[in-house]
């Protein structure tokens, strides 16, 4: 096997990214007050934003969704009122306290300016931060990690999975680590014989050997951190499965380890072409753990929520009309979520275009009136404190055109 393929296998087996690791300090400390953090949650498969944040006062909404459209607030299975115009899907009820505390905002009719309805392309554009530009070599969160003033090390940017996502691809070091039910399951490189073989193979001073050793060190530190958290949580009982458990453990990791500034998680299962459901059904069954998980993350962060922003995004929305299979097809505009202590929450932001025939994109979809990069740009500027030059490096080619009031003074 080629040496690079050996290394790729080694790092993947360890649950960490295969390239670019830097040295890690062995000591752990609680995150200092005021440390700014960003957590991005991507809903892969194109979630239906029109049934998440429901424009229940628009008569066209129920007309075009006779079986999957949610009823108005107060009706059986109706949306939960947010501002007298829009309502929240009832499966997301755990997030209502955050909305009322003005810690949660939604940007509607938000998305990519690129018209692609391909999951692969649209996700690539959203993760690279360069819609319509194919071949961008790195992801915008990796470029953000490179722009930050903190020391660049493997645990500074963390993704919750066994494979490094596109959004974190690039030269800046980052780690991949599972926090779900299988987080503590031994990997091939945890076997002494396998570890000894690879340790010997990559004992040199070359960059690949250094990357391998740093990846091993990062995994050992995260495993120790996770073991300590599990011993404290529920008197040593394992965390519950699914996203709520993962989000709870992520919050504890963030509170425990001062080095983690950026975190990324993705969830699948949002491509609801058939039997999507309304207040109940397929979509609702996926939204319930999502809402519970985000609420658990906010609770677990405690006071650190004041210095954390959580972005929730999806590659595009879904058609306004339900299809013949009582589902929805690939669309365009969607809704982006922004959660955090300094977020100017309790408001639906963005320019709502309406659902009239002349308002729809290509006659079928919610139009995009806010470029998703405008939301990210506000987070970079107002929350992460990046300069114009740094923001241009993270979001190349983006020209600010929409000023959103996403943050308090």
UniProtKB/TrEMBL annotation:
Pfam families in alphabetical order: DUF1501 (PF07394)
Q: Write out the entry's keywords from A to Z.
A: Signal
List the InterPro entries hit by this protein, alphabetically. DUF1501, TAT_signal
The reply to whether Signal figures as a keyword in the UniProt entry is: yes
Where is the secretion signal located?
A: 1-29
Q: State the protein's name.
A: DUF1501 domain-containing protein
Q: Which organism is it from?
A: Telmatospirillum siberiense
């Amino acid at each position: 096997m080629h040496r690079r393929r050996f290394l790729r296998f080694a790092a993947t087996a360890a649950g960490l990214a295969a390239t670019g690791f830097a040295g890690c300090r062995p000591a752990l400390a609680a995150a200092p007050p005021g440390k700014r953090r960003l957590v991005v949650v991507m809903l892969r498969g194109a979630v239906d934003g029109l049934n998440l944040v429901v424009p229940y006062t628009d008569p066209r909404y129920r007309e075009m969704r006779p079986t999957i459209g949610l009823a108005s607030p107060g009706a059986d299975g109706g949306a939960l009122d947010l501002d007298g115009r829009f309502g929240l899907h009832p499966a997301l009820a755990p997030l209502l306290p955050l909305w009322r505390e003005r810690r949660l905002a939604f940007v509607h009719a938000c998305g990519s300016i690129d018209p692609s309805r391909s999951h692969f392309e649209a996700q690539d554009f959203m993760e690279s931060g360069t819609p319509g530009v194919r071949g961008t070599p790195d992801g915008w969160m990796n470029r953000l990690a490179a722009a930050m003033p903190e020391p660049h090390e493997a645990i500074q940017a963390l993704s919750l999975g066994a494979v490094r996502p596109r959004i974190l691809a690039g030269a800046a070091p980052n780690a991949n680590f599972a926090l779900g039910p299988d987080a503590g399951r031994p990997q091939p490189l945890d076997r002494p014989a396998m570890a000894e073989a690879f340790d010997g193979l990559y004992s040199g001073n070359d960059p690949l050997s250094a990357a391998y050793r740093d990846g091993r060190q990062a995994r050992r530190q995260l495993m120790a951190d996770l073991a300590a958290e599990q011993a404290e949580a529920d008197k040593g009982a394992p965390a519950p499965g699914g996203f709520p458990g993962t989000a709870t453990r992520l919050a504890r990791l963030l509170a425990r380890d001062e080095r983690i500034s950026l975190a990324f998680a993705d969830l699948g299962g949002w491509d609801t072409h058939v039997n999507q459901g309304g207040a109940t059904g397929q979509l609702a069954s996926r939204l319930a753990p999502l809402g519970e998980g985000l609420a658990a993350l906010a609770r677990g962060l405690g006071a650190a929520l004041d210095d954390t922003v959580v972005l929730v995004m999806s590659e595009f929305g879904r058609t306004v009309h339900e299809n013949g299979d009582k589902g929805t097809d690939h669309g365009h505009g969607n809704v982006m979520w922004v959660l955090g202590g300094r977020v100017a929450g309790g408001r639906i932001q963005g320019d709502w275009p309406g659902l009239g025939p002349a308002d729809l994109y290509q006659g079928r979809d919610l139009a995009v009136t806010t470029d998703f990069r405008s939301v990210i740009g506000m987070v970079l500027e107002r929350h992460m404190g990046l300069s114009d030059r740094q923001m241009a490096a993270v979001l190349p080619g983006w020209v600010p055109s929409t000023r959103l009031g996403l943050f308090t003074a």
